[in-house]
Fold this sequence. Notes:
Helix content: 25-40%
Radius of gyration: 17 Å
CATH architecture: 3-Layer(aba) Sandwich
CATH superfamily: Vaccinia Virus protein VP39
Largest sheet: 8 strands, mixed
Strand content: 5-15%
Number of helices: 11
Number of strands: 8
Bound molecules: S-adenosylmethionine
Amino acid sequence: MNPALIGVGFNASIPNAARMYDYFLGGKDHLPVDREAADRALKLVPEIPIGIRENRRFLSRAMRFLADQGIRQFLDIGAGLPTQDNVHQLAARFAPGGRTVYVDNDPQVLVHARALLQKSPEVLAAQGDLRRPEEILADPAIRRHLDFDRPVAVLLLAILHFIPDGDDPVGIVARIREALPPGSYIVISHVAVDERPQVAPDVERVYDNASARFVARMSSEIAPMFDGLELVEPGLVNLHEWRMDVPVTDPVFARVDNYFMCGIGRVG
Ligand SMILES: C[S@@+](CC[C@H](N)C(=O)[O-])C[C@H]1O[C@@H](n2cnc3c(N)ncnc32)[C@H](O)[C@@H]1O
């Protein structure tokens, strides 16, 4: 466990969504309580690590796409614990001079992000909650760092499945879209349970007392999140179908179809 994590907001008694994700990714920042919950999820859906690895690879392809469209400002909401190829590093690679803001509602993620980013003027880490997007978009520090008169890419990767229906995830994305200038983009990835709806309630139960509750959704419930956006080709697809840069020959992908969906929408 990284000592930087032993700080504000550190809670070792309940499973933590960011630390569980780090465990699935093969990282080092997790505790027994996280591993116990994550292992229960893995028993139900052994493909989780494949999906998460592909989610990170999708992020990399999405960043290259956004950079090619001229985007130089990135707002990553639900940033998670730092791992390999974080958004600001991909920005440095594909969009030199680009500016990144990381937002998360988990204070522990913020402690870690700030420890990592101390010396990077192009990067800011801020606490914020996706359930209240107006507060994120009005945050003075974020508005000093990003110019909302110019296009911004808002990254919502593997976070909307932690937003309950009661908080209106479709409405949240719409409110973000309305606040962005034309030429901006919203990037979404979201677990889908089309192929195995029968395990969905058990997976949801794994997160019952976690720092964030998981919400199982069908791809038909994810599609409306792109309403009002111009959906970039190839649309809302499986992670490995989004502009994959190598041939997908691994039969493992046949097993993860319709399990983790993604797409990019352009603000017109
Ligand atoms: C599974 S991680 C995803 C990390 C990264 N976006 C990725 O796709 O690799 C989800 C992150 O969302 C954060 N999160 C969950 N609910 C949130 C909310 N309502 N507002 C902001 N962050 C939230 C969690 O703390 C966690 O760090």
